[in-house]
Amino acid sequence: MDGTTRLSESVKSELCTSNNDTVTLVWQNLTISSQTRNSCSTIVHNVNGSLHSGSLVALMGPSGAGKSTLMGALAHRSSAGITTSGQIRLNGKRIGPFMYNVSGIIYQDELLCGELTVGEHMHLMACLKLGPSLSTHRKHLLINDLLTQTNLLQCYHTQIGQIGVRKTLSGGERKRLAFAVELISRPKILFCDEPTTGLDSYSAGQVVHMIRRLTRSGTSVMCTIHQPSDELFYMFDSVLLLSNGRTAFMGKPHEAIQFFDRLGMIRPGNCATAEHFIKCLSTCRDASDRIKPETICDEYERSDIYHQQKLVISSELLLSEYGYRRPLEMEDSQQRHSWFYTLNCLIRRNFLCAHRNPQLQYMKLAQRLVIAVLVGLCFSSTIDLSQSGAQAVQGIIFLIVSENTFLPMYAVLSVFPESFPLFLRERKANLYGTGQFYIAQIVAMLPFVLLESTTFILIVYYLAHLRPTILGLLCTVAACTLVMNVSMACGCFFSTMFSSVPMAMSYLVPFDYILMITSGIFIRIWTIPTVLRWMPFISWMMFASEAISVAQWDGIDYLDCEGIPDRACLHDGDDVLQQYSFGRTHLMLDFIALITQYFLYHALALLFLHRRASKS
Length: 616
Known about the structure:
Layout: H1 9-15, E1 24-35, E2 40-52, E3 56-60, H2 67-74, E4 82-90, E5 93-94, H3 99-102, E6 103-106, H4 118-130, H5 136-149, E7 161-162, E8 166-167, H6 171-182, E9 189-193, H7 201-215, E10 220-224, H8 230-233, E11 238-243, E12 246-251, H9 253-262, H10 273-281, H11 293-301, H12 304-321, H13 339-355, H14 362-378, H15 387-411, H16 415-428, H17 434-464, H18 470-497, H19 501-517, H20 540-553, H21 573-579, H22 587-615
Parallel strand pairs: 3-10, 3-11, 6-9, 9-10
Antiparallel strand pairs: 1-2, 1-4, 4-5, 7-8, 11-12
């Protein structure tokens, strides 16, 4: 890194021009509900609270208390179907999409591209968050500074890996990397969902100490945390306790202890403070316990601390209303850079991931080469201008088309289900749109698709001794490349239409039968019943088989009929085409149909992906 491990003051001033400005997040009479088609349930009931600059707040409560739902609402990142009533204001301004710019969120599970190194991941995220406004050199300085702050500089060239598959970074390092990514945009408020879950006590302590250091620079942090040790518990400035969606207490840690002591719920000597609070608020306690969680919430709402908190909230709203609290001047969208710049960043990320996953690409290429050699050798001595030769040509055409249909179509079924969680999270963070994500996925596949299809057909064409003309070869290569692309587009359509691979496969198998039956090899197209005449027109196998057949037989004036009755003999190339209901004048229409289907399936896939993302 050559002495550039600290960020220069000029870069800091550009990135943190308003970071010293105080921010106050308040929520008043906030109720959060989950709506479905048939029911509506309230998750959080009429809660009040505030978060001030430089404060570290622990959000605690039993499972199902509404912690993650409340945090999602405050961060303006609620899931679909969640509705809120009441007020949430940041410096007097109702929260909206601008929260993507001023806040960051650390999720409990880190969704990272395991094929990338720490440095590559940070650089790509810096490009997505900051755009081209900051030079590459200054981005490099910023990344080094953040990795130094999070104690990850030594992992700069380390591959992230995947938990359970190929693990390289430890759990604590992955968590600190998630913090480093969120700090790229210098958020004024940081929300952390269970940042210490799954970590040992030492790693958990490192994470909380790192969060504590962030608050010294004015960043406000709210953490949902699960039963921290007393040492970590007292590092928080405030604690917010929830029970069944109601506020059981909000105040300083020592005030919480005093509040529960006054209720007669004194902590046993062998029990951690946070664990004691969770037990008191749990609805699964013994029936012999005198004070129920509902009673604790009622007592808090009658306490002086609660009324002081409401007074603080009212004061903040009045200060904002009369202009004493400067409103934030933020744009509603984080994407201030160009649409194509973001697309380029996503394409680079996908290329790196594909290049570093040989099982995904290079093993498939090796498999295709083996199949191409076997197919070519099997037909190497069967192709000639005879009746059996004509049958062999049509047989190898079917194999070429089907090999470039079914393998690619099923290979992409898992692409979008696997990448959907990461896409959904980054889309909610307003880093990019559905169209950019989808196009980047397709563009990253194209080089491997072109390499696979071209290599496959060249090997088969040469070994099987198909028609030795430039036009015949070019038409065959073009048709096979289009077939593979249309098949992948169709696979993407089924992949985005269904939520799981098994469900997509269950519907794709019957569709495959339609493709094969109407390919023109097994049945004459014109003999199909009238009610089913539409089926061949959705079969790219039919269009491709016709195009390749025309390229092989157009202009062939003679076929040997020795030993074959004249009525059963195919005398020339036109007879062969007519035998399969193909027309020599349809070549251009076949290619137009293949291209149309390619764009149609991709458009449908993009539509269903956007629909799924909007509902999630």
